Amino acid sequence: MQQEMNQSAVDTLTQRYSGEWDAMSQLDQASGVVQWMATNDLMPVVLVVSLTIWFVLLFYLVRMEGKLSRLEKKMETRTEETE
Amino acid sequence: MNAWKFFVAVWMTLVLAVGFMIRIPDIPILEETARNLFLHVPMWFTMMIAFTLSFWYSIRYLNDEQSEWDRRAETATQVGLLFGLCGLLTGSLWARFTWGSWWTFAEPRMNLAALAMLVFVAYFILRTAFNDPVKRARISAVYNIFGVTTLPFLLYIIPRSMPSLHPGAEGNPAFSEMTAPELRIIFYPAVIGFIGLSFWIMNVANRYKRLDAQLEQQEIED
Predict the structure, then answer these.
(1) Which residues, at least 6 apart from B148, have a Cβ–Cβ distance to it below 8 Å?
(2) What's the rounded mean pLDDT across residues B38-58?
């Protein structure tokens, strides 16, 4: 029972969905990048995707910093005026 | 922008870049997923730091009832919950490719970690229940102290005494025995990087909340 619960319906780990991939037939004519993408050496792709997510997050944080500093300055002058 | 934020930005970029580029030893079952160590474990460390901070701020609030402590406690809990959820997500992903299942109810650490997150979701639900800010701050501080106290039990003591596939449980090799030295070179800097990042996020959130409170104060005075 426990075993059954832990097994997923489709085994995507040990077998591919399909052994045939249309683009594979003319792979030898494809560009270097495409040939490389068809290999299993894809850690650089993971790196690029991770870095993209990280840079977007970083961009958002830095923008937030700028906006907050501007508002803080505005608040400071406003407080000084009222005093 | 302070210098330490630049440092965090560069540091984290380097950790990610080197973490995915270095050659790692071929550990059976883990294989390339061993790199998840740089993400999954620091998430939980950072979460613990954030919740410990919120615990401290909640105590400070009960001591002198400054609204600043309440704001900081709320922010630290938000960031802690964020990193905890990221820890659950990276853990679930890791489970899929090492244990063969996204989620299993036979795994105590997984389920108790999810339960611990629910304790802090309840904290935010509790906060919405009060209109009076003083009452809200006081009751949520008391709740938060209770909530953080459950963490060591839910995340360390109970899972360690139960049968589990998770490293560090009874009968399984702990982190120190199974981690290759190459992984440690990235792991420790990743811990520092993620903690730095959480401090940055907390800093931004606290400044926003402080401005919001100041604005509200001025509106009352006008």
Answers:
(1) B51, B52, B54, B55, B58
(2) 96
d(CA A77, CA A58): 29
How many whole angstroms separate alpha carbon B111 and alpha carbon B104?
8
pLDDT recorded at residue A13: 65
Q: A14-72: per-residue pLDDT in tens? A: 666 566 666 667 777 778 887 777 777 788 889 999 999 999 999 999 999 999 999 99
* Distance (Å, whole) CA B110 – CA B164: 10
3-state SS assignment for residue B217: helix
User: For chain A, which residues lie within 8 Å of any Cβ of chain B, measuring from their own Cβ?
Assistant: 2, 5-8, 13, 43-44, 46-47, 50-51, 54-55, 58, 61-62, 64-66, 68-69, 71-72, 75, 78-79, 82
* ipTM value: 0.84
- Does the CA dihedral A39-A40-A41-A47 come out positive or negative? positive
No. of helices (H) and no. of strands (E), chain A: 3, 0
Can you give the pLDDT at residue A41?
Answer: 77
Q: What average pLDDT does range B151-157 have in this prediction? A: 90
Contacts of B70 (CB under 8 A, 6+ apart): B57, B61, B133, B136, B137, B140, B141
Do residues B45 and B111 touch, judged by C-beta distance below 8 A?
Answer: no
Cβ-based neighbour number of residue B150 at 10 Å: 14
Contact B21 A43 (CB under 8 A): yes
Coil, helix or strand at residue B100: coil
